[in-house]
Specification:
232 residues, alpha+beta, 4 strands
Length: 232
């Protein structure tokens, strides 16, 4: 499976990023760069809740797969206008966008499929990727996937969470991950556009736990009570 991001800045040539994914796991199948920079090492601004060890995993799996995007982002400012085209097996989505929005969208896919333990939950979103979805669409998809995961948890005899409490915890962990990744990138310098793309991505992880109950309530109108026609 492939997802292709075609990013065409106004003043430079188009850059095509091909995200290759394992069909079974939705993990990244792209090869890591041959010469990894020092900022990708696991211990460089390592997340304080990271369960990985340097002996088993010398490099941060997310940082490794951000190297090419970072090099591209150095050429752009956050608000540079770009023509963005995202091609999946199911659809092609085109939009007049900004460098920040384009990189933030691609960063979300890379993060979910990178091998980071805290983003693994989002891999079903990669399989059913909806390019450039708005906040409401993303919220609907995330909650739907979470509730499907609870169905499988129940099938396995595990504890089931329909209160979404654990989903809130997952987003708080993602927010912490984003903070440490921002420190990692700031330590390099000159990557303003990529850091802002990360900030844009993080806004959702920061605000969703606070607004989850409100958003659920707002969507209730789409789900009227089920009426058994035979009873009438």
């Amino acid at each position: 499976m492939e997802i292709r991001y075609h990013i065409k800045p106004k003043k430079t040539e188009e850059k095509v990023f091909i995200i290759k994914l394992d069909d079974e796991t939705m993990g990244l199948a792209n090869s890591a760069p041959a010469d990894l920079p020092s900022w990708t090492r696991l211990e460089y601004h390592k997340c304080d809740h990271c369960p990985l060890s340097e002996q088993a995993q010398p490099h941060c799996p997310l940082a490794v797969h951000l190297v090419d995007l970072l090099e591209f982002g150095q050429q752009l400012s956050s608000h540079d206008e770009v023509d963005l085209r995202v091609v999946t097996q199911q659809r092609t989505v085109s939009k007049a966008s900004t460098a920040q929005e384009a990189m933030s969208s691609m960063m979300g896919i890379i993060a979910a499929s990178s091998g980071c333990p805290y983003t693994h939950f989002f891999r079903p979103l990669v399989r059913f990727h909806l390019p450039l979805s708005d906040n409401e669409e993303t919220f609907f998809r995330v909650v739907s996937i979470y509730l499907i995961s609870q169905y499988y948890a129940d099938e396995r005899g595990e504890t089931v969470d329909f209160s979404l409490e654990n989903l809130e915890k997952k987003y708080k962990e993602i927010h912490k991950l984003n903070l440490f990744m921002a420190k990692r990138l700031k330590g390099i310098g000159k990557e303003e556009s990529v850091i802002n793309a990360l900030v844009k991505l993080d806004v959702y992880s920061l605000t969703l736990p606070r607004k989850m109950k409100t958003l659920i309530k707002a969507m209730e109108k789409f789900f009227p009570p089920t009426v058994d026609a035979s009873s009438g």
